[in-house]
Amino acid sequence: MKISTGKFILILLIVLFEGFFVTSVKAGGYASEKKPGKAGGESSEKTSEKAAGDASEQTAEKADGSTSKKSSVKVPYDYSANIECVKEPEKPLYGGGIVTGASAGGKKLAAPIKGSVLKVDLKKDQHYALSAWLKLSKGTGNITAIIVPPDGKFITAGAIVARSDCWTLLKGGATAYSEGKGDLFFETNSTAEIMAESIALQGFSFEEWNAHREEVVAKERKKKVQITVESGGKPLPDAELSVEWVAKGFPLGNAMTKEILDMPEYEEWFAKRFKWATMENEMKWYSTEFHEGQVGYEVADKMLALAEKHNISVRGHNVFWDDESHQMDWVSKLGQDQLKEAVAKRLKSVVTHYAGKVIHWDVVNENLHFKFFEEKLGKDASGEIFKEVAKLDPKPILFMNEYNTIEQPCDLAPLPTKYIAKLKQIQAYPGNKDLKYGIGLESHFDKPNIPYMRGSLDTLAAMGVPVWLTEVDVTKGPKQVEFLEEVMREGFGHPGVKGIVMWAAWHAKGCYVMCLTDNNFKNLPVGDAVDKLLDEWRKVPDKPKTDAKGVFEAELFHGEYKVTVKHKSLKEPIVQTVDLDSTKSAATISC
Length: 591
Description:
By secondary structure, this protein is an alpha/beta fold.
């Protein structure tokens, strides 16, 4: 769903800068140390500083004095984000990047000045990470960052809720597909003026951006493991091994529909690929009690049994949906007392029925866009529902689940700062402090803004709870496959993301947005792309063998593996499952 931002009152930033600046930081892990620095020999010349009320200009040279050579030193990406509203802004990330001196020497900008635009030199085919500390001159309101690349298209690069009594960090970005002068400015829906400090715009080539992902994958998704093979208590050298991923590791799943119950080919196709699943509709209130008092879980129970047969973990989706348009007619007509009673019955019924059988609960779905239960039962309805779900089923992680938080920065309802504020409100409800929380991001994309996606994930991950992409899909178009792969790689390559579930459940009459197979369960191009990623993220070495000490050592993705051992001394192959998930790095197989 796309939502227009409407008409903003433009109160634009404040200062005019021109120039070009490259900062180099030594690569040392996938995240920077929050110590913005400049390369040796780098100089920055301040050409003018006008009085308050005028624009200022600043120029800089590259460290080596050259004008066009691409730096061979990689700049690590900084995944950090301060989600507190602070009295004094922090220093700019990357030393400001190509914005050299937006907060030079800790000085605040001569702001606000209306009608000003920040001029920047943009390179072709680069992702630009944007960060800025922002506040308003009065009250509270939304501030949106706009980047206009040389092609003239206006790109919403990020948005936050800002206050007048403290500074809030915005992280986002945009991609430049052409080279030349670009504009950066801010706008607000408030009558207040915008103040900005520590603005940074750091460019990364697509190769650098992908390298950041690979660094995260190497550190967060893989590890060096040892498999020792013994026979009669002694090492078995030169044993031939076959290693196959079978379970655990990074969760990558898909939605499923009730059609899977009657179609063995659908079941086979699904179970071969996915060990995590979400029922598309079958657990929802309107599927289990469409008519008042007629509660039935038969379909969902059968789907859960099928999942258990294949060792597939299931997310509970959902206890409630805050969208009035998805309430049954009988629910919409209830008065406050009657609705409160109905909510209590539904909650107890579904959570008790599936207690201990699901890994997550989407507790109140889409409660940033919609407020059915809050409007009927009070502003703390979500907090109370989270509390009661945890009482009945304490093991699963309890999720908010929302769309457009990382997909559409121009949709102001579910901004990362608003998501965090809502989650904090739920956590602050009496009795909720120690519950297990998760951040669910539906991830329904059209054309993804990858730098904005990463910056938003940075912000959300700073809450310190698991982040899952819960309903990933990309609308049909000529670049659907390319866009889906980019979204999946960005999620898999972000340290804060702990799981991905796609929203590509098969339907005979057509999928919701994205189908992976045709009706004969032959992969479509999107399905081939998913299979390619699955193969890549579960890849094992070719023809592994034990060394002279009976040890096989390799970098493997986290997971549970089936290992088959063949050796001339063995009458028949030995097959054993070994657990090499994130907490384990060694296993012994006895023949």
